[in-house]
From TrEMBL, chain A:
Belongs to the peptidase T1A family. This is Proteasome subunit alpha. SMART domains: Proteasome_A_N (SM00948). Residues 215-236 are annotated as: Disordered. It comes from Halovenus rubra. InterPro entries: Ntn_hydrolases_N, Proteasome_alpha, Proteasome_alpha-type, Proteasome_asu_N, Proteasome_sua/b. Keywords: Hydrolase, Proteasome. GO terms for cellular component: cytoplasm; proteasome core complex, alpha-subunit complex. Pfam families: Proteasome, Proteasome_A_N.
Automatic annotation (TrEMBL), chain B:
This is proteasome endopeptidase complex. It comes from the Archaea. The active site is at 41 (nucleophile). It holds the Pfam family Proteasome. It catalyses: Cleavage of peptide bonds with very broad specificity. Keywords: Cytoplasm, Hydrolase, Protease, Proteasome, Threonine protease. SUPFAM superfamilies: N-terminal nucleophile aminohydrolases (Ntn hydrolases) (SSF56235). GO terms for cellular component: proteasome core complex, beta-subunit complex. Coiled coil: none annotated. PROSITE patterns: PROTEASOME_BETA_2 (PS51476). One of its GO terms (biological process) is proteolysis. Its EC number is 3.4.25.1. One of its GO terms (molecular function) is threonine-type endopeptidase activity.
Length: 236, 233
């Protein structure tokens, strides 16, 4: 029975390291940083999302790579990181939002859905036999007012005016910090989002870019035509 | 075991040919101590050439002898191009509507497109099973207009036209004479309105006006028919 506990806090997610860190959660954040980036920007009357996703092979059908998704017709959700883990969170968000609608006959808000997702994600960092989600989500929508929330693998919900998740999210957020203004109209918000997402190693085309807007009237994913127009206007 | 006991209870929800609304079901006697609101009701649904038209009266009754409400909405949109008309006990019918709306919305977000009428009617059949509700479902998908009649045993019957509720005999009498294939939506609206009006004249549990829903590929429009006495007798 040689004690081999040197790395124990590096294995189970429920174990703190001696300096109070949860390494598994930090590794999960790294997994998110390897995922295709998504930008979310709140405007005066909408929340806009822009995602970059590159197919690993020319044989992959581009439409099958889902980045931005509809929760309940009103709210939108974006994931970054492990796609399989992200899908689980999307499904949880959809179920939760529909249950809320059924229970209260009210459109659930962005904060409510995001915090339910946050609780679900947090549970996986504490319950035995689980690992943290290797995905982060952005939840946005217009319910009374436009709001945008992010949930990271620790299960922390944060409200943002504009933010990014996924690869280079730090750089993208810096660009957003420089360009973002409160009270942007939707079109300016879209331009800010696309410009922040663009970089030398991310070629934005109607195939790699995915755009969606959530307004008071509901969630609208942009088709390739609208995306191309947007790219022309943003000069990419 | 559970499956067997479900079969036993099914007898209580068998379709009755006459006055199915007035029957006492096990659901009511076991679960409701007091009187239960019934729609009484006349509801109709007709497949037209380029859509579906549904009609309903507006009366809710207690035991078929007292008008508990004169302004009930019995037609509800459940899907981008589908509407359900309710007859039977009001509480379970409202639950059914809420659940069906949630299922149709979940399907749309998960699949990225609205349910087909086949999928929607099947789902309604699952949800209505065990409830003292006899709804009609009408809607349009890429295969055209569809009308379904359903009941608490879970049966789902497609037809080109149907009537339900305590006024169904009178309504069917009118439909048999006036229904034709390939009616226009406006012709079908007249037939549906007249069927509900005729039943409102003779059925004591139907009346207080007519609501019409027109369902086309463009969507659903529900509104009251004005300019009539509404069979207020």
């Amino acid at each position: 029975m040689e004690p081999n506990n040197q790395q124990a806090y590096d294995r189970g997610s429920t174990i703190f390291s001696p300096d109070g860190r949860l390494y598994q959660v930090e590794y999960a954040r790294e997994a998110v940083e390897r995922g295709g980036p998504t930008v979310g920007v709140t405007t005066e009357d909408s929340v806009v999302f822009a995602s970059y996703g590159n197919a690993r092979s020319s044989l992959v059908v581009p439409e099958s790579i889902e980045k931005l998704r509809d929760i309940d017709g009103q709210l939108g959700i974006a994931t970054a990181g492990h796609v399989a883990d992200g899908r689980r969170l999307v499904e949880y968000g959809r179920r939760f939002a529909h249950q809320e609608q059924l229970r209260y006959d009210e459109q659930p808000g962005v904060e409510t859905v995001s915090k339910a997702l946050a609780d679900f994600v947090q549970e996986s960092t504490q319950v035995g036999g689980t690992r943290p989600f290797g995905a982060a989500v952005l939840v946005g929508g217009f319910v009374e007012t436009p709001r945008l929330y992010g949930v990271d693998p620790s299960g922390t919900p944060t409200e943002w005016a504009a933010t990014a998740i996924g690869k280079d999210s730090g750089d993208i957020r810096e660009s957003l910090e420089a360009e973002y203004e409160t009270g942007l109209d939707e079109h300016s918000g879209l331009k800010v989002a696309v410009r922040a997402l663009a970089s030398e190693d991310r070629e934005l085309t109607s195939e790699t870019l995915d755009v969606a807007v959530t307004r008071e009237s509901g969630f609208e994913p942009f088709g390739s035509e609208k995306q191309e127009t947007l790219l022309e206007e943003t000069e990419f | 075991m559970m499956y067997e006991s479900r079969f036993e209870t099914d007898e209580r929800f068998e379709r009755e040919t006459v006055g199915s609304i007035e029957r006492t079901t096990a659901y009511e006697t076991n679960e409701a101590d007091g009187p239960t609101y019934k729609t009484g009701t006349t509801i109709v649904a007709l497949a037209a050439a380029d859509g579906v038209v549904m009609g309903a009266d507006k009366r809710m009754s207690l035991g078929g002898r007292f008008t508990a409400s004169k302004d009930v909405e019995k037609l509800s949109q459940v899907h981008s191009t589908a509407t359900m008309a309710i007859s039977g006990a009001v509480g379970p019918a409202q639950q059914l509507l809420d659940s069906l709306q949630a299922e149709a919305s979940l399907y749309r977000t998960r699949h990225g497109e609205p349910m087909s009428m086949k999928a929607l009617s099947k789902t309604t059949g699952h949800l209505v099973r065990g409830l003292p509700v006899q709804p009609l479902l009408g809607g349009v998908d890429e295969t055209g207009g569809h009308v379904f009649e359903l009941d608490g045993s879970g049966s789902v019957i497609e037809d080109s036209y149907a009537a339900g509720g305590s006024g169904m005999q009178t309504a069917y009498g009118l439909l048999e004479g006036r229904m034709e294939p390939q009616l226009s939506v406006s012709e079908a609206t007249d037939v549906a309105t007249d069927a509900v009006l005729a039943a409102s004249e003779r059925d004591t549990a139907s009346g207080n006006g007519v609501t019409i829903a027109t369902i086309t590929r463009e969507g659903v429009q529900i509104g009251d028919v004005t300019d009539m006495n509404g069979g207020a007798s």
